[in-house]
Amino acid sequence: MRLSNVAVVIRLLKRLRPFWFRAVLAVLAAVATAFSTIGLMGLSALLIQKASLRPPILVLTTAIVGVRFFGISRAVCRYLDRLLTHDVVLRILADLRRDVVSSLVSSSNACADLGRGQTLNRIIDDTESIQGLYVKVLSPTIVGAVTTIFAAGIFATMLPWAGALLFVGMSVVTVGVSWLAWKLTKRSARAAPEARAQLTVDILEIAEGADELAMAGRTNDWLARFEATETEIAQRESKQAWFQGCADTATTLVSGLTLVALIWVTTIAIGEGTVPGIILGVLALMSMAAFDAISGVPAAIAESGTGLESARRILELLDADKDSDPSNPQALDVSTTPAISLRSISARYTPDGPTVLNGLSLDLAPGAKVALVGQSGAGKTSLARVLVRFLDIESGGYSLTEYPIADFKRSDVRRCIGLVSQDSHVFHTSIYENIRLAKPDATELAITNLVAQVGLNDWIQTLPDGIHTVVGHDGNEMSGGQRQRLLLARALLADFPVLILDEPTAGIDRQSALGLMTDLVTSRPDKTILVITHDLVGETLFDTVYRMQEGQLSETADSNTLSLAD
Fold it and tell me: Rounded to whole angstroms, how far apart are CA atoms 432 and 21?
């Protein structure tokens, strides 16, 4: 369900709660800046007019001190306002980014559903837009409201009609012009985040598929698509800027009319002898300063549409994951190997998508060595994703140590059950750091031993920096077999009680694969190992070998069905 603007604002305000004291200080500093500006302009007008009469210097002392005070306090309060506001906002954004990344990691298929471009957009662009809500919208709006009330009150103490006129004029700007700016920019602001997200997707696809596009002769087509998206964004931003310019013009017009009205009523009051003549210049300059303090409110409200849409996208993403873990999770001992039971499970990636697992049942006793053989599309990888809770079951039962899987936190399940798949990510860093990711406190000796165990040692010795050689983006400077061995080493370092290997010998010659599988299975007698492949090597190493077809374990494989490479 789409969140309303009010609900989004309330949720964003709640994120201020841990930093409420800093937030209050930031608002007070901003308000003090506005009043220092008004006081500076008023006393400056008073000082100039009094000084023109050449009175004794002592008569001007109070005004001189006041001008100096407000001049200094304005600079100091402005600095504190910027410092405290950005301190609070950066703290909120840090928490928000952490929550977004945690949600993407833990929620079922979140990254796959969004795609890499949309995921990147959520983490970077959408959170940056939320920063503008706090800095450019929330703070100026509060300051504008407070300034309107108190400035009108100050004017009323000098001349009641002047206070009323100022209040009406400033209210027209903070409410009327702001509302008009919001209505004019609402549609383009709502579409802006989605357009920017599509631009990010286009950039990633062009950059990553440059070679394929060049070979297919489609580079210009994709560049034209990118340019079309960029043109759409530019047109929306141009339209929004034009509307904001109209709001600025309206603000200037209201400010000027209010100033003329103030001068008129003040002149009448001076003629009647109600107020001294010197008050005219004071009120005129103070009203200009008051309107200057609120002049940015309409533009801020106009920009808020983009920020609210970005905030809505992020909050809806967080809401999608809020029920993924139980409120009172069952404790899971990740130091022991659990029993796993699947009973007639079914699963699909989207509610209206095809069923990828259909009534599948499987038992994995502690320490079991099991292989699943099946052709591409049989559901092998989907089963692996279900076991590590990257994909939730639609029906049936999945239990761990005799408890339903839903009773455990996803993070605990993934510390107990590890998955090495062909599309597991290799980071743009060294071989050593890629393996150490699984266990940051591991020693270099332990990692070196694992490298030798998975058969990477000979290759690493030929590299200029050895184990500290950088392997490129997603391991693009490695062969497929080397990449697979590195992923195996990472999983072995994590020492999962249950290890799922999805095509572990892909890209490795058969003799080396047999030696690797023999070492993996025999060296971990107390660990559960599930090997998923279309071409099984070392079938005698396993307690049970199943054949998988159309999302079901239809039969125990025999020697004639262990290789489905053809």
Answer: 44
